[in-house]
Amino acid sequence: MKIFQQVLSLRERRRGFHIITEEIENIIPEIAQLKLGLCQVFIQHTSASLTINENADPTVRIDFETFFNKNVPENDPDYEHDYEGSDDMPAHLKSSLLGSSVSIPIRNGRLALGTWQGIYLCEHRNYGGQRKLVVTVWGE
């Protein structure tokens, strides 16, 4: 069994859903050494999240942002955690709904994503800053 781990610092991105698959593949080229394994990507933040979805049509990412903004609105007077801005508490809620990690099988030295699948960074803050990911790969 081989285990590899890298920390990936992502550049600051605007609020929205961004495909980061290639950045993950580039940070841990050791994936190519594995016939069978698993890649786990974990985000070290509470106001951004990760998910896997369509990587071909950019309108899917726009619709994700629209859906989450409608269902987790800003400026809700019932939120108590509001001292970091109107986007902060909604960002925490969105992050919890989507999750802080994704796992992707490795098959024959490649991430075994489907034809139209990509890994998304889901940036829920207007100014979230750089984001750090821990990418861990293990297998044989």
TrEMBL record:
Family per similarity comment: Belongs to the UPF0047 family.
InterPro entries the record matches: UPF0047_YjbQ-like (IPR001602), YjbQ-like_sf (IPR035917)
Gene3D superfamilies to which the protein is assigned, alphabetical: YjbQ-like
Superkingdom per UniProt: Bacteria
Name of a matching Pfam family: YjbQ
Identification of the protein by name: Secondary thiamine-phosphate synthase enzyme
